[in-house]
Amino acid sequence: MISATPDTLEAIEFDVEEHVATITLDRPDALNAIDARMANELAWAWQTVRDTDDIHVVVVRAAGDRAFCTGVDVKGDGSWFFRSNIWNTFDPGTVVAPKIVHRCWKPVVTAVHGYAAGGAQYLLNESDIIICSEDAAFFDPHANASIVSALEPIGMLHRGIPLGEVLRWALMGTEERISADTALRIGLVSEVVSREELWPRAHAIASSIAARNPKAIQGTIRAIWESLDMTRSAALQNGMAYTHIGNPPLAERRAAPRRNGPAYYR
């Protein structure tokens, strides 16, 4: 795989302003499909976000009019994860998404427009808040190409998407498209807005979160996500430990100013 630095980014754009990092998928001519360069640049971005204390929140969005992301670029060189030795092949989602490998516990707000197909779920499955525009369409092309669809739907189930909806998505190929309204109903997204409102709304959400104590927010994110792999009792014990680790003393909390912005009702 290639090396990524801020000066050599080609497949994504990466900007930071007022504690919010914006990652823009930037291969619109390829419908923002993930090739080796984009995968490596996303890995660099998550590591940079994780290790930069001045970054509190991330917004993920995509350039172009037609698609948020259409998964792994099957027309390009897939050797970056399909190795000749099958035992060395790995889940590409662990490279392009923030949490499982990169251990990035900063909130991720993802704004989806147009097509979100197949491997786009790698990004969605590890996002904390997902919103979409009215033209969003979520579908899985694996079945059309006689390819097993396993990793992405497993991630959807882990997020709590109903089993029947996941099976329809995975088994019916491009003929079954989850609309924005259905995505809202099944909990795949938490809000649907117009295309013009999509990016401003994502950044408004991110800015609101960024104004909070970043250590408290990261502890909250980590406790919630780690609980998904634990029994309830283990998760509660882990969560209690994080409250002791991450919460300042009571007197300090009482003295700190509260950050209450205008209420927004969905």
From TrEMBL:
One Pfam family here: ECH_1
Superkingdom to which the source organism belongs: Bacteria
CDD domains, per the entry: crotonase-like
UniProt GO MF annotations: isomerase activity
InterPro entries per UniProt: ClpP/crotonase-like_dom_sf, Ech1-like, Enoyl-CoA_hydra/iso
Family: Belongs to the enoyl-CoA hydratase/isomerase family.
Protein name from the UniProt record: Enoyl-CoA hydratase
Organism whose genome encodes this protein: Mycobacterium intermedium
